[in-house]
Each structure stands twice: as structure tokens, then as C-alpha cells.
Design goal:
Two copies of one chain form a homodimer. By secondary structure, the first copy, chain A, is of the alpha+beta class. Chain A folds into four domains: about 90 residues, Uridine Diphospho-n-acetylenolpyruvylglucosamine Reductase, domain 2, CATH 3.30.43.10; about 120 residues, Uridine Diphospho-n-acetylenolpyruvylglucosamine Reductase, domain 3 (2-Layer Sandwich), CATH 3.30.465.10; about 110 residues, Alpha-Beta Plaits (2-Layer Sandwich); about 90 residues, Alpha-Beta Plaits (2-Layer Sandwich). Chain A has 17 helices and 18 strands. In chain A, strand 17 and strand 18 form a beta hairpin. In chain A, helix 9 crosses helix 11 and helix 10 crosses helix 13. The N terminus of chain A is likely disordered.
Amino acid sequence: MTVAAPVRPVSSKLFDDLRARFGERFSTAAAVREHHGKDASYHAVAPPDAVVYAHSTEEVAATVRLCAAAKVPVIPFGTGTSLEGHIAAVQGGVCIDLSQMTRILRVSTDDLDCTVEAGVTRKQLNQHLRDSGLFFPVDPGADASLGGMAATRASGTNAVRYGTMRENVLALTVVLADGRVIRTAHRARKSAAGYDLTRLFVGSEGTLGVIAEVTLRLYGIPEAMRSAVCAFPSIEAAVATVVATIQAGVPVARIELLDAVQMDAVNRYAKLEYAVAPTLFFEFHGSAKGVDEQVETVRDFAADNGGGEFRWAASTEDRNKLWQARHDAYYACKALRSGAEVWATDVCVPISRLPECIAETAKDLAAAKVVAPIVGHVGDGNFHLCFVLDPANPAEFDEAKRLNARMVERALAMDGTCTGEHGIGLGKTEFLIAEHGEAVAVMRAVKRALDPDNIMNPGKILRMN
Amino acid sequence: MTVAAPVRPVSSKLFDDLRARFGERFSTAAAVREHHGKDASYHAVAPPDAVVYAHSTEEVAATVRLCAAAKVPVIPFGTGTSLEGHIAAVQGGVCIDLSQMTRILRVSTDDLDCTVEAGVTRKQLNQHLRDSGLFFPVDPGADASLGGMAATRASGTNAVRYGTMRENVLALTVVLADGRVIRTAHRARKSAAGYDLTRLFVGSEGTLGVIAEVTLRLYGIPEAMRSAVCAFPSIEAAVATVVATIQAGVPVARIELLDAVQMDAVNRYAKLEYAVAPTLFFEFHGSAKGVDEQVETVRDFAADNGGGEFRWAASTEDRNKLWQARHDAYYACKALRSGAEVWATDVCVPISRLPECIAETAKDLAAAKVVAPIVGHVGDGNFHLCFVLDPANPAEFDEAKRLNARMVERALAMDGTCTGEHGIGLGKTEFLIAEHGEAVAVMRAVKRALDPDNIMNPGKILRMN
């Protein structure tokens, strides 16, 4: 499924210059290019013409300067775990692999913040913080790089309590399309000084610049943390429990829905024995007394909706195991069917519309010709379908495409968004237009202003040509 | 102190067209223009050439379209309570007064959000919400319009717990520089769909477009709320209590510092009898037990630092009185000296640097030739000086300018910002450059892309000429 030759010719001078500068950290090997042309999505491989492994912001800037002079596309690459073809080199170009930029530049326990190079992953950061009493909460399923997470405005299971990358990035160091390096903000918790460039680059998917360093908020590890799993007689009952919890303002740290198909997949993949039923995974953070209060309130809501017993993860190890099972949902789906391709898609709606949105989507799936577990960060109104597809069967992809479009249209009609956390990438450019209308013209104007030659990850978010 | 004639000539055709459309809601009367040319800051009056009172987004758009055709500046006006000359018509032009756009378009108690026209003030909104069990927390000192608060990225006493306008605006309806109307986002709590236009317009001070409608997050009124006042032997002791509280992750709703000079001013203005000493104002929100826990923790920190007894505001009425006293700090300063002009300025630094930043600023003030109480949202690392000046004495303004510059330079050197919440306006354009360096070029590029003729509130944030 490799796509055709690059749209823009790459001069041999550019490659000579990059090779001279980066030596063995510059590669045009087919295997390296293929690896960098495919993310965790269903999108076809689109290999870059070459890959540079950068070791510093200055090396990123030098690469961008050379590419800019040659008007050759630049595609930033973290861990390749994006879900909408974000790193596919659809117009060829040079991939900048930031995965070796793994320095943790600074941690301030007093200010509850840190600065890391873009290649540090969320687990590496939390490993580093282990003895500090602090943690970083944003946790997409994959162990993604923090630069990539900023670039895609990633989120995860803790967002309902701690926010997404939008709320948790304090500042970025960004290499612009001409190689200039800017820092978007200082470290103050709030600022009214000019345009919010931090938030402009968060979620820009490499189309406005390459994120090279990230300054993040950190949080004290709560005094008490308790996790539980609770099965429900129906998806509706589970979702009603979520809506009641959010509307009551319970500061739940995590509240995740897995439907019966997904629970079955998780049981098989992680060798667990949960009930094969619509299930909520909970986590509560706070003081010991505060957590008790939260648990009491939420248990009442669950009971009102016919929920079963709360099955508690007592030890830290059990808690980690429980959440690993949740994070492995994608891989569990993949393992459902040998050789399967997984197409993961997500939408997000106002919480009052969530029951209806999920119910109608579930009805679609019941009548569908493909399997797609429902799993979601339902406290945010956000849920996913993971289509489990036969890569050799285009009819299955067509069916997934139809169901995805129906789900997105439904979410938009409910004043929701076509993606809560996966981003636009290649796959949702048309839905972006459906969602934002004339506002997309403003996005285009910003893109043209900051990247007049359209070399920064072209073809993603916006089609400029 | 009226400034000279407008830089750009206004055609009589534009005025004829506006008069034809708006009738008595179009005015060129001197008193109306003067009123719209001066905010609550020390900046000179700069009246617009005319004022339009808009009643709808479409009327705002029609006005902008006419001004755009004539290349005449447009200055949005809410309540005129900005603090850096944001509404001064320094290049003349047409002021669009949005204060009559006061419809509350929608409240969703289920989704904890609402949409209002830009002219609704924060107190009007909370009055409207009174019986719903919800409230909107962002509270700058003045009863500002929510459109103006979004435009200046306003904040206030609750930001330490609930965030600023950055976190609390879900979507905006914006009239662009050519009169097109966009909505920046749908109502989902999170989205990864394209550039974050909401955050781009929040804090853009009318320089990229006119905010006509605002969709806001709301919060359930907490089960328990308790407020207290506690005096300290020194500013250092008070600030140390704040730093300990924040570092311990206590979810305090408000934690405000007033120095002895400010307490004296507040006592006189509000006829209160607090100790004339560095003082913290606290508020705790949560469940009854949760609030008790928070109080216990913070009282220990205060005691460790030599704080006195907590003086509690028992009733809602007492609590409101306490916070009104805090919100009136600006007016209390003004009342310290008959006929005084108040120059309010603010900075924000990482919390670990706050003690040093305030201590050095206090040392400056002790040796200064002007009076300037210190008051601050110290939980965010944010504090203010309110210079109380004789408008007839330029030497006092020079002294304030010197002290302000020293405070800003100090904050920037500590990786802080030149303004935590007042904005750049006219007064801090040079400090913006000092803070952001090359990133200001990115802001300029965005400004040029969205407002090529520089008609949107020209001269604010960025000097484009």
C-alpha cells in the first residue's frame, strides 16, 4: 500500500548537505523510510524521501533551514503512534525523527512544572518523576512522545480531571518554517501578554512548525488513589451514571466506558476475567476522606442505574494492571482478528448528548458488517470506535468509512466535534470543514502566514492546494 | 489630555451610511466620543470619531464591513474598564459599543455551559444563574462585559481554582476584519479539530476581530464555601503561606494578598476594621468535609508563618462584603487621594519566585516617591501595583513608569510575564517585545494575515507601522 512518488522533487544538493551535517543520522534506506511513513492508523504508508535523526533544537532548525531553502516538505516524527496519518509523507520530503531528543531539561518541584525535549515519552517522564512526588497526567493509549502529544493536542483517561495538552502545556520551543526558533511563552501560570501562541501550536500537527521542547504542568501525586471497575446491564445505564457524575461536579480522575465487545477483547488480550458487559473503569484522586466521599456519591449513581459491585484494584500494581488493560484497548482490538488493521476514530459531544450519541452509534454498529468496539473517555463526552478490519477487504473499509461519517455527522449535529483527541491528520480534513465552516478560512490564512511555501507537514489538517 | 486628530481620515460617506443604518444609535457627540476614548487606566483620552451602539452580531458585522470598505479603524467597547488603554482610539475610527448586547442566549444546566452576547457583564450572568445552582467564576475587579473579558484574557480572584478566560471560554462568535462572521468552536469540552481559534481570539484585545458572542463553562455552586481573612507580620510571611498552599496542591478557591497600605485603603473605602497589616483573603470551596480539610491544612501553613487568627465571614452576606472589599481595591486606592489617577499594573511569575519578586518590589516602593499598594492573586504568582498619582504632576508618572519597568524586568528575568491579566493594550507593547522576542514576529504575521489593513483596534498589542 505504498503511495506513489513524491509530488515535489528533492534536489541531490539537499541530501548532500544533510548527509554532510548528520552523517549516519541521515538515512534514505527503504526500511527506515517505510517505518517513518506509517503511523498506527489505517492510512496507507507514505514514506518520506529521507529521515534525519535530530539531537537538538539547533539540529531541527538546521534541517528545516535546508529544507526551506529547497522548498522541500518537513514532517516531524515522534513515536509514530498517531491515528490519522499525521506522519505520512504524502508529498514526500524529509522526516525529522525527534525520538532521540530525550533529555529532561528541567524539573521544578516548587513550581510543579518541567521542560523536556520533544522526544521524551509520557512514561519516560513519569519514570523520571517517580521519586519527586509529582506526575504528569495526560495519557493517550500509546506511550507517545510529549512533542507529538502537544502537536496533536492529545488527551486520555485523566483529561476529565486534569485537562488535555491544551491545558497542560505552559510553553513550547518551536522551529518555524524558515528555521527561526521561538519560545511561545515564559513559565508564569497565566499571562495576558499578546496572542496565545502556545495554544496556536498545540494541536497544529506539525503544520505551522516543529515542536522541539515542551514545558509542562505537573501535579502532586494525590494522597489517596482508588480504582474500580463496575459492570452495567446496558451502555445506556453506564452512560447515565457518567452523566450524573459529571453534572454533580464530582472531581473524578478517570471515568472510562468499554462496551461488551471491548471488554471481551481486553479479557482475551490481557488475560483478565472481567464480566463481558458494558463497563465503567473509575479512578478517584484526593485526600483519603475526599476519595471516600467521591466513591460514595458515584456508587449511589451506579446503583441507581443498575450497576453491579465495584471491583476494587487494591494495590498500586493492581491499579496499574487495570489501567494498562484500558490503555491496551487498541492492541486488544487488533488481537481480536489475526492480521487485522484497526481504524480508530473518535468524536466528542456535550455531555447531555452523550447517551443519545452513543446509543445511535451502537444501533448503527448492531446493523453493521464490521466489528467495532466502543470505548471512551466518557467523562469528557468523548468516545471511540475501533474498527477491526481485514486489510485485504476494501468492502470492510467502505463500511467503516460509512459508519465513521455517520458518527461524525451525528456528533456535529449535536454541537460536538469530529475529533476529541485523535486530530485531523489526513483522515478528517473534510469533517474539519463541515465542523468549522468559514473558520477554516481563518486557519488557512494563519497557515499561509506562517508557512507560505506549505512545507510544514503538508496535506495535514488543511489541504492548501 | 485629549490626543490629537485621527491619523486616518474618515469619509463623510461612511458616517452617512452608519447614520442611515443605526439612526440614533450612531453618535459623533463630543461627550459620547470622550466617554468611549478613556478606560480605567492612566492612558490619555483618545476619542473615536464616532460610536455605534450595536444590538446584534449582524449589526457588528455590518459596521465592520462599512469600516473595512473605508479602511477606517474599528474599536470594540464593552464597559470601558480595561487597564492598559485598550479602547483608546489612537488612530481614530469607529467605536462599536457592545454594552447593549445583553441577551443570555442559552444556559445548559446539564452541560454546565452557556452562550451570551458580548455585552453581558459577569454580574449580570451570575444574577441570571442565581436559581440554577450554577455560577461563572472569572471575576476581574470591575463588573466587566464577558466579551471584553474574553478579549483581554481576564482573570481574577478565582483563577487559582477555576482558571482564567483562557480555560473558561468554550467558543466565540467573532466578526472578522472584513465583516465575515465565524464561530471558533462547537460546544464539546475538548477537541483536536484544527487550530485553536478560540484561544487565538481570547486575549487578542480586539486586534484580530470583534467578539460578539461568548460560550462559557459554568460550575455547580459548591456544597460548602467558607471565606476568611488572616493578617501576617510581614509580606514575606504571607507569601510563604501562599507558596506552601499551592505546592501542597490544596484546591483553594481564592487566596489573595493585600499589603498594609492596601488594607488601610480598603478599611477607609469600605468602612471596615481589618488590621492594617499584610493580609491574606481566603476562600475554600468543596464538600463540607473537604472544606474542613482544606482549612485545617492552610491554617497550619499560616500558623507556621506567624499568621494571626482566621477571621471568618459566616453568612453569604458577610462573604460577599469581604470579596466586594477586595474587588474594590482599585476604587479604594483612588479614594486614598482626592482627584487621584490610579495606574494599575500587574506581573505574574512562577510561584517559587513570587516571594523574591514581591520583596524586591516592596523594597523599591519603600524608597519611592509615590504610593502604590500591592495587591495580588498570589496563588497564581500574579500581583499588582496600584500607583496613586496626581494627574497634574508628571514627575509622579515618571516615577511610576520607572518602578513599573523595574517590576516588569524583574518578572521577566524570573521567567514570568509582563502582565498576568491586564493585557498589553497601549501600555506594554515594548514589554511584549522584551518578553517574547522573535515570537512577536509570529504575532505580527498572524495579525497581518487576519487584518491586512490594520483596522482592528490598531496600536494595541503590536505596533504594526
